[in-house]
């Protein structure tokens, strides 16, 4: 049975800060951000957007009423959970009006959560071929103002419908994965900001890639020449290139040129959004599919997922006939073009706006937020959501 990505959508907040201007404000050479880590803009989540609303808005743009009836499993991958008990997916399930006879769970393993969701979805569909599964990867990356990780923040969500006989990409049989208990990045339950050992995390990202790549080749008998492109989890866009360069010598000059060119295309959306943790790999895939109009059906795309702490996985997909007809290019183009730049001082003010943690009631002004689904406030320790 062929199982894979039938639909894919994306959402990011309407506000962003220019990385050149942030660098100047931090007394850093702008090239360190734009070239050194490869970031141009960083999405800013206003207080009226959280991981729930980002995910709901991403899915809203791709789901039909028929999809909502067919979906019987909602899997929400995030490391920005809003509740230690209730799944963020349950809120999304309600906001989107999905079939009530569905399972809904939240997956957590750093940036790997959405990939775990896809693998779980594949098993469910193998047993229930008529089912559709909604997999969400939604996060707000926060490290703090004037911190080493500040330039790798971001906000956004990717939504995917996984099904049998998918219209966009069939996920192939073989997959290679690895787990090791390390402390390269973590966020204790008492902190709203992450902690990271940046140099160690970069080293582990590349080490994990090396190991799962070798394992994948052994399982599949495929080589570098068999790939049209490889997409990476992108905490920042230069990170994936560092990993890709470790295997380029396995191919010809033609292979190198093709893979590097497609890699650059795959980073364009991430370059203008920033790090969205669980959604970053799939935003990279979306960027490749929507911006490279010459990518042919039948092409094999490699996917490297990495979640600090750490779990890594390499798997592949084959693009389906007429896959471009099932993308939402115009919608995503409009999303990017309609965003508003904020100054560094405005960004800092927005960053410091946080929700109360003492049970206080709060009503938020959602009139300035153009999103269809917003967080409207808190009452009795409950988040209140509005679908306009």
Automatic annotation (TrEMBL):
CDD domains: init_cond_enzymes. Its EC number is 2.3.3.10. The active site is at 79 (proton donor/acceptor), 111 (acyl-thioester intermediate), 233 (proton donor/acceptor). Signal peptide: none annotated. (3S)-3-hydroxy-3-methylglutaryl-CoA binds at residues 143, 242, 275. The keyword Lipoprotein does not apply. InterPro entries: HMG_CoA_synt_C_dom (IPR013746), HMG_CoA_synth_N (IPR013528), HMG_CoA_synthase_prok (IPR011554), Thiolase-like (IPR016039). Pfam families: HMG_CoA_synt_C (PF08540), HMG_CoA_synt_N (PF01154). Residues 2-165 form the Hydroxymethylglutaryl-coenzyme A synthase N-terminal domain. Keywords: Acyltransferase, Transferase. Residues 177-247, 253-351 form the Hydroxymethylglutaryl-coenzyme A synthase C-terminal domain. Belongs to the thiolase-like superfamily. HMG-CoA synthase family. This is Hydroxymethylglutaryl-CoA synthase. The lineage of its organism: Bacteria, Bacillati, Bacillota, Bacilli, Bacillales.
